[in-house]
Amino acid sequence: MPKHGLALRHLVFTGPGREPAALSFEDGVNVVFGASNTGKSFIVKAMSYMLGARAKLPKIPQSNGYDSAWLGLVLPSGREVTLYRSTKGGGMRLHDGLVTDAPKNSGVVLAIADNKKDETVSHFLLAAIGLADKQVVRNASADKEPLSIRLLAPLFLVEEDRIISGRSPILYSQQHTEVTFEKNLFRLLLTGLDDSGVQTVMSKGARTVATNAKVELLDEFIQQIDEQLGEGEIDRADLQRQIESIDASLAALYETMQRAQDEIDSLVSERRTKTDKKLELSARLAELEVTLQRFASLDAVYSSDIARLEALEEGGFILRAMNGQDCAVCGAPPSAQRHNHAADEIERSHAAAAAEVRKIEREQRVLARTVASLTAETGGLRSLIAELDRALIGIEQTILDARPKEAAARNDYEVFFSKKGELEKITSLLARRDSLVVKKSQVEEKPAATKPEDKMQVGIDGPTAYTFGKVVREILEIWGFPDASEAQFDLATSDVTIGGNARADSGKGVKAILHAAVNVALLLYCRERNLPHPGFVVLDTPLLTYREPLESKYGELSADELKLQRTGLATRFYDHLASLKDVAQFVVIENKDPPADVAKPMPIQTFTANPNSGRYGLFPVKRVD
Question: Is the dihedral of CA 458, 463, 465, 468 positive or negative?
Answer without folding.
Answer: negative
